[in-house]
Amino acid sequence: MELDFSAHLCEASDAVEYVYFPTTAYISQLAPPVDGAQIEIGLVGDEGMLGATLVLGVGASPHQSIVQGAGTSLRMECAKFLKHVAVDVKLDALLKQYLFVQLVQLQHATLCTRFHHIEERLARWLLMVHDRTGGDRFVMTHEYLAAMLGVRRVGVTQAASALQQRGLISYRRGQIVILDRELLEEAACACYAADKEIYAELMS
Q1: Residue 34: beta bridge partners?
Q2: CB under 8 Å to 170, separation ≥6 — which residues?
Q3: What tens digit of pLDDT does each residue of 65-109 get?
Q4: How far apart are CA 161 and CA 178, in angstroms?
């Protein structure tokens, strides 16, 4: 099915009706708002799925899920999904490994938000999106980036300008182009490499 940009797939605490396996789309997982503000805690693309917490016996979503990159996804009703999990030991084990990976990545994201500079965090986030889009060009507004990173808009402007001045990205009118992937990885905080490492270790 097609997933449209900004479509709300699930709200925090709502009963989960479907699981999603993005193929070209990518989905932001957002913590419940506090004082009207939200922050992204996870990003799901073709490397993962949305709804894996069902294997823990929890039928409610722990977060809000919004399509941030339009594209295609596979979708399955939760009841059918759980029937498959119940009879497939390997699938059940794989999903639990994936949940562990997400837990570790959430820990990285928490530390990243607290201790790393906005420029490093922006580089990390752009790399995460780049991994899931398969292309060097995508649309991102200052407002969107500020909300995802949990910072003020001016902070994103300064960080994006710094990356652009170094020749890592081009950023104009909400369109971002990755110019030098290798240097962008060097500019990102260590959390990006740590996320990739835990995924490769358990999911490859």
Answers
A1: 37
A2: 164, 176, 177, 179
A3: 999 999 999 999 999 999 999 999 999 999 999 999 999 999 998
A4: 13
- Whether this prediction's pTM lies above 0.85 is answered by yes
* C-beta of residue 73 within 8 angstroms of C-beta of residue 20: yes
Residue given tokens 């003020």 in the structure block: 152
Strands in 18-22's sheet, in edge-to-edge order, are 2-3, 71-77, 18-22
Is residue 87 packed enough to be buried (19+ CB in 10 Å), middle (13-18) or exposed (0-12)?
Answer: exposed
Is the Cα torsion angle 53, 54, 57, 63 positive or negative in sign? positive
Nearest-angstrom CA–CA distance, 127 and 60: 30
